[in-house]
Write a structure and sequence with these properties.
Helix content: 10-25%
Biased composition (Low complexity): 261-274
Largest sheet: 10 strands, antiparallel
Strand order of the largest sheet: 2-3-4-5-6-11-10-9-8-7
Protein name: DUF317 domain-containing protein
Number of strands: 13
Biased composition (Pro residues): 242-251
Pfam families: SPDY
Domain DUF317: 52-109, 156-222
Length: 288
Amino acid sequence: MLHDDHETIDGDVYVSPRHLARSTAVGDPGLDPLRGLGWDLHHDDLGNAYLTAPDGKVRLGYLPEGDDDGLWRINAYKDAFGPPAWGVCFNDAAPTEFVTAFTNALAEAYRQGPDHYLARPLAGSADRDPFLAVDPLINRGWQFNRPHLSTFAITAPGGLATLEYTTGDLDPAIELDTRDARWHLWAGTSSARPFWYITASTDTPAALLRAVTEAVADPAPLPRWRDDTSSYVKDHAQLSPILPPSRPSPTPLDVRRAAASRRPAALPAASVPRWSTTSRPALPGPRR
């Protein structure tokens, strides 16, 4: 959504459509929803940050010094000592607002318990159907296509963002460690060289995925700094200046106050001539 207070906008231009924005390179907005729950935060010697839920069953890595371009890696576990039940990755160019949408939804799911943050997608379910993740995009005019027999895709108007869903059996380990995951959301003209990408494995809860697609589908532009050309797709995004808010129309009270401020000041009391009952006024002098 647009901000009403110009002072709170971190940028001098709006980027639209918002899927042509990129990362702000500031991690705090994505971390804060989970830090607010009291999750344990620690850093390694390289400066990577790690958040762990109190029960150890959800873990987030913010990895600017990681081995690849997977900046954000979030995994959930049925058993804190077992393999991940699901995993999501945002690469280092993915818009920060989309990460924050996910971590906000994850924080809410964690408050509600394992039945929510470990809820496997279930076709036909009212609140777990995978289509729930697609619905926000359909409502904004994204179009279905099928680029491969094993892949359903839905593409943004303009063709510069796509959500892919791969059918069939997938290797869970490969889903977690590569881009060959069940869900693949990316911007650009080719998935091989995207502007940014997000992946999610088979058992990622539909509600968490929907939080991301709702953020992507939101028609409101995203604020960025024009000079920071790495924070948006320079050759494709539309930029519009962020203007300070116009002055509000004066109220009747404002008009009265302004008029009062323009009246001439009264003469000081000492300068006002006064008649006295004990003195007579001076007679006028002779006319010349």
